[in-house]
Amino acid sequence: xxxxxxxxxxxALCHRxxxxxxxxxxxxxxRDKTYWPLLCLVQLAGPxxxxxxxxxxxxxxxxxxxxxxxxxDVVKVFHAARQDVEIxxxxxxxxxxxxxxxxxxxxVCGFGDQVSYETLAGKLTGARIDKSSRFTDWSRRPLTERxxxxxxxxxxxxxxxxxKLSLRLAESGRAAWLAEELAVLRNPETYRLEPxxxxxxxxPRSSNPRFLAMLASLAAWREVEAQRRNVPRQRIVxxxxxxxxxxxxxxxxxxxxxxxxxxxxxxxxxxxxDMLTAIAEGRDRPPPAITEGExxxxxxxxxxxxxxxxxLLKLQCETHEVAQKLVASAEDLEAIAAVDDAAxxxxxxxxxxxxxDYALALKRGRIALxxxxxxxxxxxxxxxxxx
Length: 387
Description:
It is built from 16 helices and 7 strands. By secondary structure, it is of the alpha/beta class. The longest helix has 28 residues, at 145-172. The radius of gyration is 25 Å and the shape is flat.
């Protein structure tokens, strides 16, 4: 067993798979020492064959593979697709289409939140996957038989998983639910790494406009520098350092050197000078918009209602056999507790039918939760008569 390292062999494989109804795809890559992922291996499996492609082979041309990813008649099947799709997006500027994510589909079908590939393969195929090669160095050559066997297992069982989940979705009428969830993975904006948005990754607790302007400027500077040098963000400056410097807003080298988390000598270095320039730019820029993902705060006394909504969410998701994470987040519950018309996914589409309408009814006193026969149940309450 050896990975494909010949261009003619790769082109022939991709031509054959272009006539298949689907192709299962997985990748092996390294990212611990770089900003951009280093693609090392690509695994492909059609209905009748499975192969690994050596993405590091000298002279290898992945153009046939990238063309296969564009094939409109071939469903590209991934498990936990986001990182794999991100790699191909940054290679081509396009999202593979159409796609199917078995992890998301499993959540729709009631297998729990973010179910692992090993768990799903065990439940749907009876396979026990050897994960001892999980932390291998995929850039080293030659790859062993055991490494290649491990890599190919991530697509061979995925074929059966895809077939069985597709059948369950059709039988349950939830294909539209999955399509709605996959919209995020199909959106190119999901994979664009815009420096101006980098500050959101730090999840600041303060909404002070001056602080956010400083943080946005510093985070954008670090993102550009990490991309330029192709090193992880933390190799430039750690997150906690950015947060402290944004809060202190030092005006000069001496002020920067006095910041508690700044290493000795950093303030006088080129990176220190660049950081001070970013701080100066932050003083002159407006604070970033914080409406994206913003949720109204829970009014005093409403936290017990949030806890009650969590119980209702668990009950409804068990009843409908769908993952809680897919239906409502903790932020959604807080928003619903705060206002009746909260702009959250839980109050739209199929989620509203499964949970949202029940959450509003519970909040308005139209239903109650009660224990009967050792089980939690919903009880509809009669309207209170008024005179």
